[in-house]
Amino acid sequence: MITGPTFTTAEFLLRPSFTALCLLCELLRPVSSANSSRSLLVIELNLGIRKMASTACFMIVSRNDIPIYEAEVGTAPKKEEAAHQHQFILHAALDIVQDLAWTTSAMFLKSIDRFNDLVVSVYVTAGIHTRLMLLHDSRNDDGIKSFFQEVHELYIKISFTDLLLQNLQILLNPLYLPGSRITSSHFDTKVRALARKYL
Amino acid sequence: MDPANSTLGRMLLDEITPVVMVLRTPLVEESSQKNQLSFIQMLSPFCNFNNIDVPVRTASDQPYRLKKFKLRLFYASDIRQPNIEAAKERLNQVITDAGEKDLSNLCSEPLQIESLLAVSSRDEDPINKFVDLFNINQLPSLLNDGSMDPKMLKHFVLVHDGVEVPLERATKTLAEMRSTFGANCCHLLCINSSKDGSEEHENLWSAYKTDISHGQQLRCFLSSDDLDELKKFVQDLSSKHIIPHMEQKIRLLNQQVSATRKGFRNQIKNLWWRKGKEDAPENPAGPTYTFSSIESQIRVLGDYAFMLHDYELALSNYRLLSTDYKLDKAWKHYAGVQEMMGLTYFILDQSRKDGEYCMENAFTTYLKIGSSGQRNATRCGLWWVEMLKARDQYKEAASVYFRISGEELLHSAVMLEQASYCYLFSTPPMLRKYGFHLVLSGDLYKKCDQIKHAIRTYKGALSVFKGTTWRHIRDHVHFHIGKWYGFLGIFDVAIKNMLEVLACGHQSKTTQELFLKDFLQIIQQTGKTYEVPKLQLPVINIPSVKVVYEDHRTYASQAAIHVKESLWRSLEEDMIPTMSSKSNWLELQSKMLPKKFKESNICVAGEAIGITIEFKNPLQIPISISGVTLICEHSSAVSEPNANNSIGEQNGDTSNKSATSGNFASDASSFTLSEADVALGEGETVLVQLTVTPRAEGTLKIVGIRWKLSGSLGGFCTFDSDLVRKKVMKGNRKSKRSTFDNLKFLVIKSLPKLEGFIHHLPETVYVGDLRCISLELKNPSKIPVKKLKMKVNPPMFLQIGHKEDLEVQFPACLERKSSRQSSLRSKTDKVSDGIFPFPEDTSIADGTPISWPLWLRAAAPGKISLYLSVYYEMGDISSVMTYRTLRVHFNIEVLPSLDVSFQISPRPSRLREFLVRMDVVNRSSSKGFQVHQLSSVGNEWEISLLEPTKVLPSDFLLAGQAISRFLKLKNCRSVTDQDSASSLCPSKKADVNLLSGSEMLFDLYSSPLSMRTRLTLYWYPDHKVRRMNTQIVRTSSPIWWIIDGPRTVKHDFKEPFYAITLKMIVHNSSDDVVSIRCNPSDSAVNISSSGTTSAASGNEVGWHDLSLSNDIKITPDTPGTRVVKPMSSDTVPPFIWSASSSTHYTLEPLSSRETPMEICVFSPGTFDLSNYSLHWSLSSPSDRGDESRTSSGTCQGHPFYITVLQQD
């Protein structure tokens, strides 16, 4: 007589095929007192994933290495001292980006540089070679990648009209340098919302 | 690249060499000290052999020749475990000393520190042959506790001082020594042979160490023979004693090692033996090995082989050893061996990967064993870095440096700095990393109070970050450099750097405060006031600079300055001399002035040049600016008008650049400056107005502006020619000239200048308001001005009055007086072309003002700008400018008041009479008015109320209220008036008083206004007189006529027809004789057609709307527009003209005539008698040349209805 494999609850949880969806179903199932410890475990796991980066400094750097947007998007209270340190680290990381950008076609360059606990991830846009840089202390690569992609989309949208104008200006004025500072408050709110969502 | 030739390779060859321990008696030292040298110092120059060329045979049978060899000499007391604290102190000292030197020095020789450190660390290395150096402070203990082999090669040297001891005695002693120690190992060394000396002899026995100090001092007591002997001695020592001894030892040890460890059996045995030891309690420092243990033997063998450059042998031994140590968990020893393996790999230039792996292994192992391994780790790291550097792997080297930097601050600082240099040297240079690491190291230096080093590193970083747009970085670097220089008391550089960060609008408020506070503190410490260019606080908006000056155009007020030049020019066009004004005085100038000044702006001595500049505070904290003044240069170089240009210029440049307002408001004689203080709030922008008043002739150049920040720091800013785009109130010339020139002025001799003020100027007036304002002109100068002319714009609002108008009381002057003479004005006063010339004898000087009245009449509502320009000529002919203009500009606001409209229709029954309906609406928002009087202009018209009642509904017209009045208008022109027509004497009935209870009437002609209007309404607001002028009537036909007769007749029609007699009264209102033909027409069709043609010809009689008139609604009773009902041709006309078909007569001017007319009617009814036409023509056509008047025309008959009733 053949019987299928039976799992204890613990084994069930640890099965490799166990997906996040199942986790969610488990979580939503009415919890009896008997397995309350298990559901607690699940919640903790969940929290572990969603923990937001305590330090995160996001910058957009134009082709000429001029920062056109900067925002501290971490949850940690903002420190005076940190602002210039973050700039230093990101600025220095540009050297690495410069090296890497010619060796890979990938847009998302994860953890290319680090300083103590802080890691620099970069997203290089294809056409105009604008770099989205994030200094972070979390290891949530997927979230960071999504964050970059969405911000990139947003950036394209918000600067679309600008770009058109710029192209026009380029035509008219050969001395025009593209990549002016982003001052839109709409963009700022959106970026911060995305940071809360993904980081 | 040959690794032996790299820096690291040379260092290895230099540093990993046999050490000779030197023991000497004090007397030896004493005799050496005669030459200011220690004994070792005396010997050491000869210890370095670059081409010793000794054959060596080590483990293998193949001999090879050793080219390079070196000995290191040490005193016995120095051979010990180097004291770490001492080394640290030394490092500290070196760094501090270096800091005292020129700061950039170290920058160029970064290896110096490191090599010193390396030296001190490297001292351990040869001792680590027996890698077992714990707790040993003195060499004897090192020898005694068994970690070193005490059976060392000994060599005895007798030092013979040629001065003090005779040679015989020395040789004798030598012989004694030889007999004692053996002939080979004894040597006589003669020194100081150049003088007499006593005998000294010493035992020297060789050991393992040396220093590398070079004997730089002069060996005053040493003859050349002595030097040769020294050299020979050391060479013999190494080639005949040390090297053979080492060879021998290597061979011996190799045999031992081969016997015990080589071969399969030995390996198994060894492994088993090690395994057995595993259970033993682990010594935290690892097992100790004595010199006689096999591990130590292998290590010694390896080291000896390394020193004799037999690297293959060394490597194989190290490899063997490392596995042993690893199994034994003797981590420190293991790391040491790994380190040596790495170095050996390097020097062999084999397998880079293995070498790096060994170094990495050693490094991590050292770190693993904790604090005791820290220094070894550092040393190992440095070897590693050198290895990487030798292979141009700078990026990796930098990261190793970064790993070496530990907790110790100074140490880390040095390492980080080195890391930064590695980034700089890497290809491509990683400049940003370089800068970042320099800043990191600078921070650490600062923490160790090494301010000078901190500054040096930051300055290096600055070269990267200069001009960066990463503002936080720039601010951080500049601020710290500035602050540290401030600590050092080098204030000028400190200030220069701090200046960079002052305009930090992007920083937070606290940071801004910090920056400003620290900056001011530095300024205070200097104790003096600094002047700096390009002070960024406040931000000066140079393109906003506006310059206002007066040449031949002068301005009465600020408001006049801001008016567009073109407006003034069009106003003054006719007034200034016909030959273009500019060329006029320019020509004059060109005779008087050198050519180069021709392009300059002209200004007059004693008259201020004003400059307006925008100051902006970029910070979120308020700042105070004081003492804002202009910087000007004045030179008085225009004295030689006809001099050779070039020479003149040179002279002008060299000798006359006397008065620059550089440091003080100097040379008050040539110009004076105004000063302003400004307090700028958060992010505020303030316009500052400054003036400079030249006092003497010459050229004046406005160079820039200076100010003081917070009362302590002076800033100045020059108006660079590229930056300023000045807006001068200048006409055509500014476009082609740079601003640089525009700020240069030619100062000419002081001229009289009129000042003008407007008195009694109201700010707001109501439409129709009439005010007398007076223009006061003053000339403070002694020189009189003459030939004044004036023009105003727009003339509808502003009219120039008469001198007498000033004295009259207004509005009382308008009241009708019995005598009229004063109110009539002479034709000569009339303004021609709007230019009003002042009386010929007018001359203004010495500050006595003259006033001239102006009538301000608010013609239309709105904001009105009024312009007034006064032209005057200098009384003094010698002056450069012959004339000037004074421009006055002011604004008034005109509010709406009464809105008047008239409806005028001819009165049917009366000749030359009209009915007038006047509607008055008060359009003002709040004001009430009293309507006072309505007047008609000229002597042709009489006006009166239709009902001569005095009962009016309301005197006072409130806001928004409207009233209507019915009036009749009568043409009263008659022959009797003809001779006095030109006097324009109005008839007494031309005015009607509309205000109950007041008998006062205003005299239309005493008012200063022109006669263009026909009806004038006067009203009071709060007891002031306003008037409204309306032009309403004009006729184009010179004749008036009316049909008079019964309107209703009764007839019994017993006769077939009934004749009615009528009369037509025709009046000629023109001044010419008019011939008139009356054409009655029976045909209704004809009437109709003639009616249309006459309407089309436009010569109809009646009232015409004139576009000039304001707010008038006229419903003209034009016959042409009246549709005559066409009658069918079948029907018999209801009546026929019976008297005559046509009458023709002439009328004298202003006369009337009655002609009888008769019609026959056939039946009762109502008949319209308008089917006639009057043809008129002027008998003497237009000898006056009046184009507008027509000489003939046809008029349709007025409607006249007659009703015939059947009489019973």
UniProtKB/TrEMBL annotation, chain A:
<dbReference type="InterPro" id="IPR006722">
    <property type="entry name" value="Sedlin"/>
</dbReference>
<dbReference type="Pfam" id="PF04628">
    <property type="entry name" value="Sedlin_N"/>
</dbReference>
<dbReference type="GO" id="GO:0006888">
    <property type="term" value="P:endoplasmic reticulum to Golgi vesicle-mediated transport"/>
</dbReference>
<protein>
    <recommendedName>
        <fullName>Trafficking protein particle complex subunit 2</fullName>
    </recommendedName>
</protein>
<dbReference type="InterPro" id="IPR011012">
    <property type="entry name" value="Longin-like_dom_sf"/>
</dbReference>
<dbReference type="GO" id="GO:0005737">
    <property type="term" value="C:cytoplasm"/>
</dbReference>
<feature type="signal peptide">
    <location>
        <begin position="1"/>
        <end position="33"/>
    </location>
</feature>
<keyword id="KW-0732">Signal</keyword>
TrEMBL record, chain B:
<dbReference type="InterPro" id="IPR024420">
    <property type="entry name" value="TRAPP_III_complex_Trs85"/>
</dbReference>
<feature type="domain" description="TPPC8 second Ig-like">
    <location>
        <begin position="768"/>
        <end position="886"/>
    </location>
</feature>
<dbReference type="Pfam" id="PF12739">
    <property type="entry name" value="TRAPPC-Trs85"/>
</dbReference>
<dbReference type="Pfam" id="PF24544">
    <property type="entry name" value="Ig_TPPC8_2nd"/>
</dbReference>
<dbReference type="GO" id="GO:1990072">
    <property type="term" value="C:TRAPPIII protein complex"/>
</dbReference>
<dbReference type="InterPro" id="IPR058541">
    <property type="entry name" value="Ig_TPPC8_1st"/>
</dbReference>
<dbReference type="Pfam" id="PF24545">
    <property type="entry name" value="Ig_TPPC8_1st"/>
</dbReference>
<dbReference type="InterPro" id="IPR058538">
    <property type="entry name" value="Ig_TPPC8_2nd"/>
</dbReference>
<protein>
    <recommendedName>
        <fullName>Trafficking protein particle complex subunit 8</fullName>
    </recommendedName>
</protein>
<dbReference type="InterPro" id="IPR011990">
    <property type="entry name" value="TPR-like_helical_dom_sf"/>
</dbReference>
<feature type="domain" description="TPPC8 first Ig-like">
    <location>
        <begin position="565"/>
        <end position="712"/>
    </location>
</feature>
<feature type="region of interest" description="Disordered">
    <location>
        <begin position="640"/>
        <end position="661"/>
    </location>
</feature>
